[in-house]
Amino acid sequence: xxxxxxxxxxxxxxxxxxxxxxxxxxxxxxxxxxxxxxxxxxxxxxxxxxxxxxxxxxxxxxxxxxxxxxxxxxxxxxxxxxxxxxxxxxxxxxxxxxxxxxxxxxxxxxxxxxxxxxxxxxxxxxxxxxxxxxxxxxxxxxxxx
Length: 145
What we know:
Number of strands: 0
Radius of gyration: 19 Å
Structural class: mainly alpha
Oligomer: single chain
Helix content: 55-70%
């Protein structure tokens, strides 16, 4: 067999394997239940939140770098699942955003998320769940336990 053809087939096989591994990783870190649908619905607010967080000098440098890399990924025209595929095309973006938000909240704390949130209080509640944070009772509410 031609060595160039062998090399091309090996590269193509490696790319397919890497793509399948990336899809498996997305399936592992994807939000459970209806959170993925909520993440897709909140994507416009999340796209305003991420640059606000990335420009915050109070956040650790590693967190800001992660957020700028996320913005670069979202701006790339090539995705793991092409955006022209209904629902699934945006699901990979939502999963990557959710995974990044979880790591940002672990490093920077939930206060940064609350401070920079551009959307509604209900949206913030959904984003907090997406980031793996516990529910917060509204001010003045009492526990019934």
